[in-house]
Amino acid sequence: MVTSWSRSTDSPAATPCGGPKFTPDGRYVFFASRDGWVTKFDIWNLKVVAEIRAGINTRNVAVSGDGKYLAVANYLPNALVLMDADLNLLKVLSVKDKDGKVSSRVSAVYDAEPRKSFVAALKDVAEVWEISYNPNAEDIPIGMVHDFQYKEGAFIRGFLNPRRSYLSEPLDDFFFTQGYNELMGTSREAGKGQVVNLDVRKRIADLNLPGMPHLGSGITWKWQGKTVMATPNLKDGLITVIDLSDWKTIKSLATPGPGFFMRSHGSHALRLG
Fold it and tell me: Which residues, in sequence order, are CB contacts of 2 under 8 Å at separation 6+?
């Protein structure tokens, strides 16, 4: 459901969700409201230049690394909406499982710039979707394929269509490794997370994460020659630090209360004993 209706000037502004997203040149910023409005704001001229409604209950918006495309994750309707940078509708992906029987809300969508794609977590289906915004993306096989080289089978275009990674349970949120080849996701079962490799498109490891971490807020940095990740916990006062080479927990740090976001700077993120 995408409309170009103007929002009433006498109605209260909806609360932004998912954080602002900027174009690479820093000129434009995009906001998504919880009730589905997506706004494009010109920072140089301090004015709204475009606005569109992309859903009824929206989770967040992602902007492609080249600044040309947007993806909007919706709870209602169960859809992932794709637009260009001027907020012109390109495609609405109705989110269903591979058999087309189970519909799903979209928990979140993020840009994976090195892969030239958007990656989406599905709330109600055990799949992760990767949608390429590269016009030259390889075609996607669907159903039975006899020969990939000669395209003997059923294929759809790779541009703006989902590639599916099949999981054992849905992800609520996730966080990319620095190379963007893997994502670390949280599951509904407390104390567990999973690592998904986007190249082989399957779960490759489990994470020992107590409570319910918000992995979209995690950070990574170099420590003792290895890359580590830290994520806070939404329920318990705890920060979990994980070694990304073997996905094992290095340390758990107690905090006075639950945490939601973590940010780092150029020198040190955390000092580990």
Answer: 52, 53, 54, 81, 83, 89, 92
Q: What is the DSSP string of 250-264?
A: EEEEE-SS-------
| Domain membership of residue 248 as a residue range | 181-266
Residues 40, 87 contacting (CB under 8 angstroms):
yes
In the chain, the number of structural domains is: 1
- Spell out a b/e string for 198-208, using b for 16 or more CB atoms within 10 Å of the CB, else e: beeeebeeebe
Length reported for the chain: 273
CB-side neighbour CA atoms (13 Å) of 155: 16
Q: Is residue 208 domain-resident? A: yes
pLDDT per position as a tens digit, 6-41? 343 333 334 455 689 999 999 999 999 999 999 999
* Residue ranges, the chain, pLDDT below 50: 1-15, 146, 272-273
Assigned domain for 220 exists: yes
Tell me the backbone φ, ψ of residue 240, rounded to 5 degrees: -105, 130
Read off the pTM: 0.85
